[in-house]
Design brief:
With 258 residues, the chain is α/β, with parallel strands linked by helices. The protein has a domain of 145 residues: Rossmann fold, CATH 3.40.50.300. Strands 6-7-8-3-9-10 form a six-stranded mixed β-sheet, with helices on both faces. A four-stranded antiparallel β-sheet has the order 2-1-4-5, covered by helices on one side. Helix 6 links the parallel strand 7 and strand 8.
Length: 258
């Protein structure tokens, strides 16, 4: 597996800034005072067990859920204060790679990739759409799958096409939801390499939601460890896991594969 390359990160320029974020559902407190910054050009992995609020955090970032308290600024805009038209414009600048790839089963690969462009860039000519589809297919290494149906693709190929569809609008931020979930180790390694290549080629800033420590170690500049509704530790992989904290050690021992 290729190691995470050193990438130019501008710590003067945050693309996501969250402070004092709380979110509950009835009596269930999910997020209990989250503070978080994603810098331009940076990959951050948010680690945590199932049910710790990782997906809730992502949904708040893209405005699908409103915080109970706290400030969420994405690309300079207060997300919870945006009208629906402004929120939709912001979401176009954010790429969301779903855990299940979320491809349309009735469309072939070309149609799946062209769909976001034809919906959001109505002025584009067919050749411009074709060129954009070809570019992102090349970026994910699947130029030969143009006319294939999603049902004909392997799990890893569907993940790649899902990432390609996200890239086609050239987002500034990428949100990856469990990108290696359900994949064998070799395919997982290929997806991790692709995440790094996307960061390098498209200069994206990314939040990688995962419980896969191999993915976190090899794709993220920083790790944010989410436990019991708070970020327990934030730093490089070694900074987070060089600890005597029993909760962190238990998570490491259970999850990590060399």
């Amino acid at each position: 597996m290729k190691k995470l390359m050193q990438h130019s990160i501008n710590k003067e320029d945050s693309v996501i800034s969250i402070s004092g974020l709380f979110k509950s559902f009835g009596d269930l407190e999910v997020l209990k005072g989250i503070n978080f910054t994603l810098y331009k050009g940076e990959n951050v992995a948010v680690l945590g067990k199932s049910g710790t609020g990782k997906s809730v955090l992502i949904k708040i970032i893209i405005g699908l859920l409103k915080p109970d308290r706290g400030e969420v600024i994405v690309l300079g805009q207060h997300v919870d204060q945006l009208e629906s038209k402004e929120l939709n414009a912001l979401r176009i600048r954010i790429g969301f790679s779903f855990q299940n790839s979320a491809l349309y089963d009735s469309m072939n690969v070309y149609q799946n990739l062209a769909f976001p462009l034809t919906m959001n860039r109505k002025h584009l000519k067919k050749k411009e759409v074709d060129d954009a589809v070809e570019e992102v297919l090349e970026a994910v290494g699947l130029t030969d799958k143009l006319k294939q149906m999603p049902s004909d693709l392997s799990g890893g190929q569907r993940k790649r096409i899902g990432i390609a569809r996200t890239l086609i609008l050239k987002p500034e931020i990428m949100l990856y939801d469990e990108p290696t979930s359900g994949l064998d180790p070799i395919t997982s390694a290929e997806i991790i390499e692709l995440i790094n290549e996307v960061q390098q080629k498209y200069n994206t800033s990314s939040v990688i939601i995962t419980h896969d420590l191999t993915c976190a170690k090899n794709s993220a500049n920083r790790i944010a460890m989410l436990l019991e509704g708070k970020f327990l530790k934030v730093g490089t992989f070694d900074e987070v896991f060089d600890t005597n904290d029993e909760q962190v050690k238990a998570f490491f021992d259970y999850n990590f594969i060399q």
